[in-house]
Amino acid sequence: MRSKPLAIATLALALPFAVLAQTPDPGPYHVLKIQLAGGDGGFDYVTADSDGRNLYVARSGAAGHIGVFNLDTLAQVGDIPNTSAHGAAVDTATGHGFATSNPVTMFDAKTLAILKTIDTKGRPDGYLNDTYNHRFYILSHEEPNIVVLDDKDGSILGTLNIGGAPEQAASDGSGKIYVDIVDKGAIAVIDANTMQMVGKYDISSKGGGCAGLALDRKNQILFAACREKSNMIMLSATDGHILADLPTGSGSDGATFNPATMEAFSSQGDGTLTVVKEDSPTSFVVEETVPTPARAKTLSLDAKTGHIFTITAEYGPVPAVSPNAPPAPAGVPAWMRGPRPPMIPGSFQILEIGKE
């Protein structure tokens, strides 16, 4: 295997992860660029707006804010301050964006001005912007599990209890929404018109702790990336029957599908990105395992370029584990167990992954 130079954009001094400047090239995908964004606060989701050519990165905690970056250059072009959130996305048609803060923040996609805050109760975490009828779905591990907002004015249209904790959702663009239930080994089926759960697919025989979900709309195939057995489960979106499952890295927290290449992607916190190729609606293969920095566990696809974006940071030593600490819940990967190490100041980074 040959190595390729990795473009690293620095904001200040070179940091320890600059050693990633030479990385193995095991296949067509590799890390094309690391953009140091710096800043304080935790992080969870990253969202690429392929139409508006922006990348939204939510930061959480006392210094919470939403950084907005140019999707083509990764230069920062804006910021929404005083907004501690898990993630953010925009609806191009309405020109409105929403962040899963508590309360939820609604903002103007052009000016980034905050338009209103919306008390949705629960604990806003994941989200789905469904362009089918311009609704924004707030996913919460506490009831109400799902709150549906109108993208036009931010009004609450309804709530759903899906019998467990939702993680990621996918829309078929024609009125059906699928949500993986991370603590139940199941996928909920929701009618986008009635805002009611109309079905539930049990996938617990193949795995659980599914935190990533993607959809091949053309062939109606769901890709569920699961932590319990570190695998991706492929199943029919029509009736839920399982088609296959393949191994992934450990600790997936996001999945996406690129219809242009017929590939599904799962990002893992153990420092891997799994690429699954759909050769046919019944045949799947792990095409590549792309090395990434550790904790790059969520991802977003730029539909225009086919590039994957993910986020992470560098961390210091892991604190000692207290002898009285409770055991980690079942299905929690090793890298997520125990006390969290401190983030190295200024090390937060955006990764761009693609074919050169």
The 3D shape can be described as globular
Given the helix and strand composition, which structural class is it? mainly beta
Please count the beta strands (DSSP E, at least 2 residues each).
31
Strand order within the widest beta sheet: 2-4-31-30-29
Mean pLDDT: 91
Tell me the major beta sheet.
5 strands, mixed
What's the CATH first level? Mainly Beta
CATH homologous superfamily designation: YVTN repeat-like/Quinoprotein amine dehydrogenase
Number of domains: 1
Count of discrete alpha- or pi-helical segments spanning 4 or more residues: 0
The separation of the N and C termini measures 16 Å
Identify the CATH architecture.
7 Propeller
Fold-level CATH name:
Methylamine Dehydrogenase, Chain H
Structure description:
The chain has strands at residues 3-5, 7-9, 22-24, 29-36, 42-49, 54-60, 65-70, 76-80, 85-91, 96-101, 104-108, 114-118, 124-130, 135-140, 146-150, 156-160, 166-171, 176-181, 186-191, 196-202, 210-216, 221-226, 231-236, 242-247, 252-258, 263-268, 272-280, 283-291, 299-301, 308-312, 349-355. Residues 1-5 and 10-24 have low confidence and may be disordered. The two termini are 16 Å apart. It is mainly beta.
Quick rundown:
The chain has 356 residues and is mainly beta.
Give keywords.
single chain, 356 residues, mainly beta, Methylamine Dehydrogenase, Chain H, four-stranded antiparallel sheet, disordered N terminus
What layout of secondary structure does this protein have?
Blueprint: E1 3-5, E2 7-9, E3 22-24, E4 29-36, E5 42-49, E6 54-60, E7 65-70, E8 76-80, E9 85-91, E10 96-101, E11 104-108, E12 114-118, E13 124-130, E14 135-140, E15 146-150, E16 156-160, E17 166-171, E18 176-181, E19 186-191, E20 196-202, E21 210-216, E22 221-226, E23 231-236, E24 242-247, E25 252-258, E26 263-268, E27 272-280, E28 283-291, E29 299-301, E30 308-312, E31 349-355
Parallel strand pairs: 2-4
Antiparallel strand pairs: 1-3, 4-31, 5-6, 6-7, 7-8, 9-10, 10-11, 11-12, 13-14, 14-15, 15-16, 17-18, 18-19, 19-20, 21-22, 22-23, 23-24, 25-26, 26-27, 27-28, 29-30, 30-31
